[in-house]
Write a structure and sequence with these properties.
Shape: extended
Number of strands: 11
Helix content: 10-25%
Order of helices and strands: EEEEEEHEEHEEEHHHH
Radius of gyration: 28 Å
Distance between the termini: 50 Å
Strand order of the largest sheet: 1-2-8-11-10-9-7
Structural class: alpha+beta
Mean pLDDT: 84
Largest sheet: 7 strands, mixed, barrel
């Protein structure tokens, strides 16, 4: 069975409304450590402490307070929070549809699977297929985890995916983030494109692993079994000054015969010789 749903309610588009659930689609994995007392290695317990009475108190004796000015709090209870929940806590309404290529991925935050709840299968299948065929994403509003999110609905391979979206004021506007394309020379660009085509592969996410997490895991196992911990050798890099020279060297190393650019492109670029007898295949350059 799928993980616990993080939200359930109705998805509305136009006059069509059907029940859905959201499931978390991905989560970061990291190795977690516990705090121990240095002297006797016993587990540390986090204590909730009252400053005024100078004694530990139980979680049940706490309430939420919002500091509206220094040392002044207003108490907010869960009932208060529930009362102000907008209608979007139970209803996800599609506000509009936008062209997929207009959505900059920088806006996308967390990913969720959208699944139809009982009775919603047909309308869900319709929306999924319509999104897929039209090249549009849906933009909807939903409230969860004590805030109202804008959600982007997009067709995945097997069903609808949704992503909470950062608001415009949450995206950092960095003025220095500009590229000076006048620095680019024609020949370097042609070579860079050749290098790109020589490194072309299909996207296979299963190939990638978190080597930091793998190393940590191995080091922990070594320690448990009493073996020595071996340090990862460090690398030193000097910045590349002669881009053209570096590109040529990269190409010489990475060249995949079948993917090398045509003789013409290579000749244009300069001293690189075309790969023997592979000239028929059109290059990605140019």
């Amino acid at each position: 069975h799928m993980a616990a749903s993080v939200w359930k309610g109705h998805l509305i588009f136009g006059m069509v409304s059907f029940p859905i659930r959201l499931f978390s689609a991905a989560r970061s994995e990291t190795i977690s450590f516990n705090l121990l007392h240095k002297d006797d290695h016993s587990r540390i317990r986090q204590v909730t402490y009252c400053q005024l009475e100078d004694k530990p108190i139980s979680r049940g004796e706490t309430v939420k307070g919002y500091e509206y000015e220094k040392d002044h709090y207003v108490v907010i209870d869960d009932e208060d929070i529930r009362k102000v929940a907008p209608r979007t806590a139970k209803v996800m309404e599609i506000l509009e549809f936008v062209k997929a290529d207009q959505v900059d991925p920088i806006y996308l935050e967390s990913s969720y699977y959208v699944a139809p709840d009982e009775g919603g299968e047909k309308a869900y299948a319709l929306l999924f297929t319509a999104l897929k065929d039209s090249g549009y994403y849906g933009v909807a509003k939903v409230a969860m985890h004590n805030r109202e999110h804008i959600i982007v609905l997009r067709p995945g391979a097997k069903g609808i995916l949704s992503h909470t979206m950062y608001y415009q004021d949450e995206i950092r506007q960095v003025e220095e983030f500009r590229t000076d394309t006048s620095l680019v020379k024609e020949k370097e660009l042609a070579m860079a494109k050749m290098l790109i085509s020589s490194l072309e592969e299909n996207f296979e996410p299963q190939k990638y692993h978190d080597s930091y997490r793998d190393n940590l895991q191995k080091m922990i196992e070594d320690k448990i079994e009493g073996r020595n911990v071996v340090e990862t050798p460090s690398e030193h890099f000097a910045p590349v000054i002669d881009i053209m020279e570096a590109l040529k060297k990269s190409l010489a190393e990475k060249r995949k015969p079948a993917m090398v650019a045509t003789a013409a492109a290579a000749a244009e670029v300069g001293e690189i010789e075309a790969a023997p007898k592979k000239r028929a295949r059109k290059s990605k350059v140019g």
